[in-house]
Amino acid sequence: MRALQALWKFIRVLACVVRGYVIVRWTFAKLSDEQQARYVEVWARGMLAVMGIQVRVKGHPAKGPVLMAANHISWLDILVMHAACHCRFVAKSEIRAWPVVGVLTTGGGSLYIERSSNRDAMRVVHQMADALRQGQVLAVFPEGGTGDGVSLLPFHANLLQAAISADAPIQPIALQFLEARTGQHSFAPCYHDHDTLVSSLWRTLCAPPLLAQVRYGDTQMANGRNRRVWALDLQATVADLRN
Predict the structure, then answer these.
(1) Would you say the C-alpha torsion 89, 147, 6, 81 has a positive or negative sign?
(2) Apex CA 142: angle with CA 82 and CA 218, to 5°?
(3) If both were cysteines, with which of 66, 163, 165, 178 could 211 make a disulfide (CB 3.0 to 4.6 Å apart)?
(4) Number of Cβ atoms within 10 Å of the Cβ of 221
(5) DSSP state, 145?
(6) Domains (ranges, CATH) in the chain?
(7) Are 170 and 220 in contact (CB under 8 A)?
(8) How far apart are CA 173 and CA 141, in angstroms?
């Protein structure tokens, strides 16, 4: 029975993806930035609802200019954060080439980075700083990879330089996936190195109903900290927000 329910969810997920792809590909150019952001939020909430994932928000997302820094568990994190508040993500460049997903990610306003290139990291930092000076809301996953949602990987500092250069605040965010009925931590949405997007999606669809929790912390300025010290402090803050 659970497999049949998951299959039905999967069919509905595909329908949502196709609908999003069509709108991004042929309608987005006619919409204002505000209308695009609103559509992305609504679409993300609908997609998560189809998958049986409820979103619970604690705290309040800051208005731009702000750089949001969150822990990273799954490809679902982007959907969850968009459902809570639209933001422009800094994503690895490989995603841009993914069929369909690349179009959706680009439509969501993502900036792309070649993670293995220091020169490209500096290019993206300058682009991020310009966007922050324009009052935009950006988001990064400083861990640089996905964890299990229980422990945190070290926070990388490079992209945080954009907030220092633009004299903009950073808002720490803690993400968690819980079983909706019990409130216990769920590993189903985790995206491991050996996972494919399809296998991770199927495991999520087979899981009991889930609760994605987004907890916004207080914004903070650098206040003289360099990016490495700030990264350590942000990691500790995100760890505290999950408790």
Answers:
(1) negative
(2) 65
(3) 178
(4) 13
(5) S
(6) 2-241 (3.40.1130.10)
(7) yes
(8) 10
| Other CB atoms within 10 A of residue 44 CB | 23
pTM over 0.85: yes
Strand order in the sheet with 210-216: 53-58, 210-216, 170-179, 66-70, 137-140, 88-92, 111-113
Contact in structure between 227 and 161 (CB atoms under 8 Å): yes
Q: Which of 134, 163, 129 is nearest to 233 (CA)?
A: 163
In order of 79, 80, 154, 238, the CA distances from 72 in angstroms are 12, 11, 11, 11
**Most distant pair of Cα atoms in the chain: their distance:** 57
Amino acid sitting at position 98 = W
Beta strands in the chain (DSSP E): 53-58, 66-70, 88-92, 111-113, 137-140, 170-179, 210-216
DSSP state of 133: H
